[in-house]
Amino acid sequence: MTTLSANVTVIAMGVMFVYYQVSQPAITQWSTVALNFNYPYFAISLALNIILTLMIVARLVLHSRDLQNAIGAPSKTTRLYKAIVTMVIESFAFYAATSVLFIVPWATDSSTSGIFFPILTNAQVRAVF
User: Fold this and answer.
1) Rounded to whole angstroms, what are the CA distances from 25 to 11, 14, 21, 88?
2) Separation CA 3–CA 127 (nearest Å)
3) Contact 9, 48 (CB under 8 A)
4) What is the pLDDT of residue 58?
5) pLDDT at 59
6) Cβ–Cβ contacts within 10 Å for residue 102, how many?
7) Model pTM?
8) Which residues fall within 8 angstroms of residue 85, CB to CB, at 6 or more apart?
9) Phi/psi of residue 110, each to 5°?
10) What is the model's pLDDT at position 121?
11) What is the C-alpha to C-alpha distance for residues 64 and 84, in angstroms, rounded to an integer?
12) What is the pLDDT of residues 38-69, one digit of tens each?
């Protein structure tokens, strides 16, 4: 349920941004008006990614602990949960790091944000797979 709400939120922000840009063709994504709209989009995207990853990891850890308490001894299933948690955290860390590397220079109007934007778009695609 939480991933559905996160996807709906990110999609809604993206649709609003596209609608805004289509309705105002003279404004590019680097103009000051568009920047005021883009800051919330990237911040919400990063915050939702952090919150949902922490919720998923917490749920997996709690379920693994409950399973271990029910079985009594560490088994192969607890190692499976640890592997899944590791995989989720690695996927999250890649996207979060590239997102921060883009947002910080962009917020300070640095030209290095142009370097990190293509990396961020690749990270968004790779985090899904």
Assistant:
1) 21, 16, 6, 39
2) 14
3) yes
4) 93
5) 92
6) 23
7) 0.68
8) 57, 60, 61, 64
9) -90, 150
10) 80
11) 11
12) 777 788 888 888 888 899 899 999 988 888 88
Distance CA 69, CA 113 (A): 48
Distance of CA 97 to the CA centre of its chain: 10
Q: What is the 3-state secondary structure (H, E, C) of the chain?
A: CHHHHHHHHHHHHHHHHHHHHHHCCCCCCCCHHHHHHHHHHHHHHHHHHHHHHHHHHHHHHHHHHHHHHHHCCCCHHHHHHHHHHHHHHHHHHHHHHHHHHHHHHHHCCCCCHHHHHHHHHHHHHHHHC
Show the tokens assigned to 111: 């030209």
Q: pLDDT of 67-126, one tens digit each?
A: 888 887 777 777 888 888 888 888 888 888 888 898 888 888 888 888 888 888 888 777
Burial class (CB in 10 A: 0-12, 13-18, 19+), 111: exposed
pLDDT at 52: 86
